[in-house]
Amino acid sequence: VSKMIFSVKGMTCASCVNRVEKMISKVEGVRSVNVNLAANQAQVEADETIEMSEAIIKAIEKAGYDAKPIDNDDQRKVLFSVKGMTCASCVTRVEKAIAKVEGVQSVNVNLAANQAQVEGEKGILDPEAVIKRIEKIGYEASIINEDEQREESDEQMVETRKLFKDFTVAAVLTTVVLVGSIPHMMHGWGAWVPTFLSNPLFLLVLTSYIQLVPGWRFYKNSYKVLRNGSADMNVLVAMGTSAAWLYSGAMTLFPDQLTAMGFPYQLYYDVTTVITTLILLGRYFEAKAKGQTSTAIKKLM
């Protein structure tokens, strides 16, 4: 079995990718097909015969696209660490950005391992250009080798522990905020709540701490993404929680002025803290799962 890479020109959408994959799969002797729209390439594993490459090219051309083989000897493979990705949208954004770099022939971004494997033409592919392109869209990138992969794993463990610590702190304080918010949410039901717990200024201080300490990661990541003219889940979280937090803070500090202007007296500290805490919990589970998946992948490799 040999691995062959083909340049495929003319693809514009996922439907094109499916069409090319189906046509190649019909060629006798083909074991697997992986078509990358961003890089305009098809990676094929097939029985090693003289006619196989020609048969695959004919199949691609029959589907309506131009194709030609890419010599593996002319390729350079570089592995990058990419930090800051949180979802499939991030993966797509990184792949599209890398594919625009001169000399890049194929891109494979792994969310679980926080890595991007890039193949390109020797003498043309510039790793520094790839790093700059990744950083331009709001992520951190660096070249890694086998010795540095262990260090990457250690950093991931540290980040997982930090997420758990942030979640634990946020969860404890959120519980206090929820108890203190009962008199504001259900009038007549919070007589048992100590007065100092339901004091709006006290709730403002606790909520501000949750937003600016455990939840600071959302603001930091939002800045990185927004300064490059894009948006992701961090921006959504930061905007949503900040709106509730700032409105409640303004209503706490200037209740008479705001109610006189027609704004209803309503505090949303419970909403802000619960959302931040639950998303931190989700991020912790995600980081833990990614760490386990990454370890399993490295063992297989």
From TrEMBL:
<keyword id="KW-1278">Translocase</keyword>
<feature type="transmembrane region" description="Helical">
    <location>
        <begin position="266"/>
        <end position="285"/>
    </location>
</feature>
<feature type="domain" description="HMA">
    <location>
        <begin position="76"/>
        <end position="142"/>
    </location>
</feature>
<keyword id="KW-0813">Transport</keyword>
<keyword id="KW-0186">Copper</keyword>
<dbReference type="GO" id="GO:0055070">
    <property type="term" value="P:copper ion homeostasis"/>
</dbReference>
<dbReference type="GO" id="GO:0016020">
    <property type="term" value="C:membrane"/>
</dbReference>
<keyword id="KW-1133">Transmembrane helix</keyword>
<feature type="transmembrane region" description="Helical">
    <location>
        <begin position="167"/>
        <end position="186"/>
    </location>
</feature>
<keyword id="KW-0812">Transmembrane</keyword>
<protein>
    <submittedName>
        <fullName>ATPase</fullName>
    </submittedName>
</protein>
<keyword id="KW-0472">Membrane</keyword>
<dbReference type="Pfam" id="PF00403">
    <property type="entry name" value="HMA"/>
</dbReference>
<keyword id="KW-0479">Metal-binding</keyword>
<keyword id="KW-0406">Ion transport</keyword>
<feature type="transmembrane region" description="Helical">
    <location>
        <begin position="192"/>
        <end position="212"/>
    </location>
</feature>
<dbReference type="InterPro" id="IPR036163">
    <property type="entry name" value="HMA_dom_sf"/>
</dbReference>
<keyword id="KW-0460">Magnesium</keyword>
<feature type="transmembrane region" description="Helical">
    <location>
        <begin position="233"/>
        <end position="254"/>
    </location>
</feature>
<dbReference type="InterPro" id="IPR006122">
    <property type="entry name" value="HMA_Cu_ion-bd"/>
</dbReference>
<dbReference type="GO" id="GO:0043682">
    <property type="term" value="F:P-type divalent copper transporter activity"/>
</dbReference>
<keyword id="KW-0187">Copper transport</keyword>
<feature type="domain" description="HMA">
    <location>
        <begin position="2"/>
        <end position="68"/>
    </location>
</feature>
<dbReference type="GO" id="GO:0005507">
    <property type="term" value="F:copper ion binding"/>
</dbReference>
<dbReference type="InterPro" id="IPR017969">
    <property type="entry name" value="Heavy-metal-associated_CS"/>
</dbReference>
<dbReference type="InterPro" id="IPR006121">
    <property type="entry name" value="HMA_dom"/>
</dbReference>
